[in-house]
Amino acid sequence: MPKPNDAEAVPLLDLSKPSSPISFPIKSLQDLESRSYFDSFHFQFNRSTVPLRGDLPNNRPRVLVCHDMKGGYVDDKWVQGCENDAGYAIWHWYLMDVFVYFSHSLVTIPPPCWTNTAHRHGVKVLGTFITEWDEGKTTCNEMLATKESAQMYAERLAELATSLGFDGWLINIENEIDKEQVPNLMEFVSHLTKVLHLSTPGSLVIWYDSVTVHDHLKWQDHLNEKNKRFFDLCDGIFMNYTWKESYPKLSAEVAGDRKYDVYMGIDVFGRGSFGGGQWTVDTALDLLKRNNVSAAIFAPGWVYETAQPPNFHTAQNKECEVNWCTKIEEGFGETKKRESVPRNLSRTGLLRIGTGGRFGRERGQLRGATVW
C-alpha cells in the first residue's frame, strides 16, 4: 500500500491530561507492550457504545471497504465532533459487510464514530496493524524474537479490540523478515485469531497479501502456496490490488469452501487495479461477481481527495449508487440493504452522514451553534 501524502493530523498532546477527547494510533511496540493506551485520558472516550447487529453472511461474497483517507485521523479524530461540516463521510453502509480503518501507524485504532455508525448497520469494523520497509523489519525483529513475544503482542492487540468494542484487525506485514522468524509470525497470526475469537465472538483477523511464507516481501495478487498458510490461520485474506483477470478464479479454486474469505483488492485511485478504478470500479466488481469471491474496495476517499465535481455529496452518491450499488446488489447475494438496515431506521437514517447542528438556548431563544 502506498504512503500517504499527508502526515497524520494528531495533535502533540500529553495524552494523560484532560483535553478535548481525540482518537489516536499507537506508534511503537513499547507503547503497545506497556498498555499505556489504557492510562490515557482519552481511552474511555474511544470506546464504542453501539453493539454490532448480526454477523457476516456465509452464503454469499462480501464487500470490505478499506478507509485510507489522507493518512487517517483527520476530522474524525475529534471524538466529540469538530466544526468542519465539509469533512469526509460515508453513508452507503447498506453496501458493506466489513469496514477497515487504515493509517500507516503501527497500530491504527478506529475512532468510535466509525464503529458506532457501522455497527448500527450490521457492518464489522477492523483496525490495522502494519509494519513497513526498514523500520518495519526492525519492529518485526523485536516482535517475532520468540514465540512468547509474538503471543504477547497478539494478546495486546486482542485486548485493544475487545476493550474498545471494535471487531478485529487487518494484519499487514509489508517488509522482509528473517527466515527463522516465519514460524513466529505464523504464531502471531494464529494466536491473535484464537484469543480474539474467545474474547470477542464473531471477531475477524484478516491477513494482507504481503510478505510470503518464504520471508520475501512479494505481493502475490492471488491466493497460492506462498500466502495460503497465513490465510489458513485466520479469517480471511485481503489480496493486493494489482491482480490480473484470471486471478479471482484461481484464488477461488485454491480457497475451496472458503472462497468468500478471499477479498480481492480494488484500488479506487486506480493504481494498477483491474478495470482502472475511479469511475470504473464496477468493472472489477463484475469480474469478482462472476468468480464468486469477495471484494475489498481500497481508498474510496478518492472522490473527496481529488475533489470530483460538482461537489462531494453528489460525486459520492454517483460513485456508490451508480458505479457500485448495482454490481454489489446483483453479484453479492441478496441486497445488503435488506440484511443490515434496522426495521426502525428510516431512509433518512440510512443516509445520515454523521454531521449535524449543535444548538443551545439564549434568553429563551433556540440558537444554532457549531456543527458536529
TrEMBL record:
Main location: cytoplasm
Entry's Gene Ontology BP terms: N-glycan processing
Keyword Cell membrane: no
A GO molecular-function annotation: mannosyl-glycoprotein endo-beta-N-acetylglucosaminidase activity
Catalytic activity of the protein: an N(4)-(oligosaccharide-(1->3)-[oligosaccharide-(1->6)]-beta-D-Man-(1->4)-beta-D-GlcNAc-(1->4)-alpha-D-GlcNAc)-L-asparaginyl-[protein] + H2O = an oligosaccharide-(1->3)-[oligosaccharide-(1->6)]-beta-D-Man-(1->4)-D-GlcNAc + N(4)-(N-acetyl-beta-D-glucosaminyl)-L-asparaginyl-[protein]
Record-linked SUPFAM superfamilies: (Trans)glycosidases
Protein name: mannosyl-glycoprotein endo-beta-N-acetylglucosaminidase
